[in-house]
Every structure is written in structure tokens, then in C-alpha cells.
Amino acid sequence: MNIENKTILITGGGTGIGFAIAKVLSLKGNNLILVGRREDKLKEAVARLPKASYIVADVTNSTDVENLVQQVNATFGGLDILVNNAGVVTAYPLESTEGVYEKAKFEMDLNYLSVVRLTERLLPLLKASKEAAIVNIESIVSYLPNTVIATYSATKAALHSYSQSLRLVLQRTHPHIQLFEVFPPFVDTDMTKGFSADKLSPDVVAEDIYNALQKNEYAIRPGLTKDVYHSFLQSPEITLKRFNGIEV
User: Which run of H or E residues covers position 108?
Assistant: First the structure.
């Protein structure tokens, strides 16, 4: 698709993968709308980008979402690309007898349900665009759950399933709206600071997204995700065990 002179909204756009995406998409006359809960981070991000503004909003809060949609309508009069990037991960033993439900619910609200709601509310603007896209930031664990972040894995699997279905529906009803899925491995961001694993630069992920948008490649698998995915297709059970450090 053509990604020039587009109006682009990025949730979680003040830091990490979101800001890396904003940097690479800030070229070629695009208008950026960065959304997040921390105004200080959003201000810092916008100051480093051309043609960028921000909206403070918690995408899990229905009132904030309604205000966000109204501001996008009033200020920009439309939207061409929605990047659903905001997310959270918690690591804990799944066999724990305390806090599993609360942590899982928090992750599901932000990583999955907020995406469904925001996409629903902004879809009319994307339908009105001549050429539009939805970019959902998912994860390598959309394919293969990790036992240390089991409920996070479940939220990303849910988002993958939803994205596949929505793509098929849009291809039939509104083919000018393309849906892209991004499956990064661990990325070096604030969210993964507590994890001891090899981490990919968010700038690499952003470059892969930028290139895939131009080529209309709907599944974007940065870094080691590409190799793990191919292994998964050949031997799902063995790859799952190896992915979780279990000898086979």
C-alpha cells in the first residue's frame, strides 16, 4: 500500500515498539497521532517527530476511547492507518494460587479486548478512507505459548484469531482496508526489562513493518520468529517443548 500523506494512529506510541513505528512512519508527509496513558512520554515522543500530535487515553477505559474517537474526528476528520500496539505482559508461575485471574484479566483487557473495541469504534473512519490499514502488534507467542507468560500468550493467540477472521471479512466487504499482523520475538523495551532473553531492537521491528506495508505482506515475522514459525509448521509439539526449554 501507499504510505504517504496518511493519518496514522498508534496506541502505546510514546515508547518502545510504538515509538519506533512512529519514527519510521513519520516520513513522507504522514500525520501521526500517538496515544498513551503517560503524557510525559507522549510529549517527549512528539517533540522528536514531524507532523505529530498526541492524545492521552487509556484504551481499556470506555470513556477515554469515546473521547479519543471524537478528537480524531474533530481534529483530523479521518483516519487511514490504525496501529494497535499498546500491551502489557506479566510473568508468574501459572500454578500459583493467588492473582492469576486478576493478572490474566488485566492482560486480556489491554492486549485483546481494547483492540476489539478501538477497532470497532474507528472502523467507520477506516471505511471512509480511500486506502486503509489495521496493524495489530501480536507476538511469537501467538503461535507458541510460553509457560512463564502463559496468560499473556493466551491474549496474543486470541488477537491472532480475531485478526485472521477480521481480515477475511474485510477482504470480502471492504477490500480497501488491509489487516497486517506483526509477530515479534522478545523486543528490547521497557515492558521486557525484567526478562533475561535475547531481545530484538524495536527499530528492526519497525523497519520490517514499514517494508511489509509497502509490499502488502500481511504476516510480519521479525527476527527469530521466522525460523520458529517454520519449525512450528513442521512439528508443532516438538517446537512447543523446545520453545519452553523442555528436552525432546
Answer: helix 100-108
**The pTM is what?**
0.95
What's the grid cell of residue 146? 510460553
Q: What is the pLDDT along the chain (248 residues), one digit of tens a residue?
A: 999 999 999 999 999 999 999 999 998 899 999 999 999 999 999 999 999 999 999 999 999 999 999 999 999 999 999 999 999 999 888 888 788 999 999 999 999 999 999 999 999 999 999 999 999 999 999 999 999 999 999 999 999 999 999 999 999 999 999 999 999 998 877 776 666 677 789 999 999 999 999 999 999 999 999 999 999 999 999 999 999 999 98
- Residue 11: its H or E element: strand 7-11
**Where do the domains of the chain lie, and which CATH numbers do they carry?**
7-243 (3.40.50.720)
What 3-state DSSP class applies to 152?
helix
Q: Locate 85 and state its grid cell.
A: 500496539
Residue whose C-alpha cell reads 493467540 in the numeric block: 157
pLDDT at residue 194 in the model: 67
152 in catalytic set: yes
Sheet containing 132-137: which strands, arranged edge to edge? 52-56, 31-36, 7-11, 81-84, 132-137, 177-182, 219-220
Element (H, E) at 170: helix 150-173
In the set 54, 152, 210, 229, the catalytic residue is: 152
Rounded CA-CA distance 189/167 in Å is 28
Helices 202-215 and 16-25, packing angle to 10 deg:
50
Best CA proximity match to 143, nearest among 233, 18, 245, 248: 233
